[in-house]
Amino acid sequence: MIKEWATVVSWQNGVALVSCDVKAACGSCASRAGCGSRVLNKLGPQTTHTLQVPSEQPLVAGQKVELGIAEGSLLGSAMLVYLTPLAGLFVLGGLFQMLFGTDLAAMCGAALGGVGGFLLARGYSQRLADREAWQPVILNVALAPDQLRVESLSSEAR
After folding, report:
1. What is the pLDDT of residue 8?
2. 3-state SS, one letter per residue, for 78-120
3. For residue range 52-94, what is the model confidence (pLDDT) as tens digits?
4. With 24 labelled, which of 62, 101, 106, 109 sits at a CA distance of 20 to 30 A?
5. What is the mean pLDDT of residues 121-125?
6. Is 68 exposed, middle or buried (0-12, 13-18, 19+ CB in 10 A)?
């Protein structure tokens, strides 16, 4: 189970709307200049993801929850997203090369196969998203923000 903490945005009728922060590149390894994660994090302006998660327990805005998702579903979705366009690229590129015998035809077939594989993955991922095993679940619930109070004594009171 892969776990991540999220913040509750709202809760209504047994469904919690939670927000997860996108992890920035860590910057602790030596390959900062060639790190693909670092480059991808800089490209997108999105810094949070919002998810709807079923929760029978009432939650309040600002409360932290620990979400979990099965490794199998995460690996399956990653394979679908990355391997389907790659397989389409190779299959149609090879097929066009055999049929037409030119590099230009192979390049066009590869482009069509890659785009077709992407569209196939996009359509199939909608069906997979409805499966219960592929949905994130709430594992732990932290205290509500108004239930925790921290008091510190000033230096004058000591």
Report:
1. 92
2. HHHHHHHHHHHHHHHHHHHHHHHCCHHHHHHHHHHHHHHHHHH
3. 899 888 999 989 999 998 888 888 888 999 999 999 999 999 9
4. 62
5. 91
6. middle
Q: Is the pTM of this model over 0.85?
A: no
Give 20's contacts (C-beta < 8 A, 6+ positions apart).
Answer: 4, 5, 6, 7, 48, 49, 50, 51, 67
State mean pLDDT over 20-45: 62
Residues 6+ apart with CB under 8 A from 123: none
Q: What is the DSSP letter of 146?
A: G
Please say whether the dihedral angle defined by the alpha carbons of residues 61, 52, 115 and 24, taken in this order, is positive or negative. Answer: positive
For residues 109 and 115, give the distance between their C-alpha atoms in angstroms, rounded to a whole number. 10
| Dist. CA 17–CA 138, nearest whole Å | 12
User: Which two structure tokens, joined as six digits, stand for 121?
Assistant: 């993955």
Tell me the domain boundaries of the chain: 2-147
Q: What does the block give as tokens for 103?
A: 């590099």
Q: What is the dihedral of CA 72, 136, 138, 142, to 10 degrees?
A: 100
Distance (Å, rounded) from C-alpha 73 to C-alpha 79?
10
Q: What is the pLDDT of residue 152?
A: 76
Per the structure block, which two tokens stand in for 23?
A: 């992890």
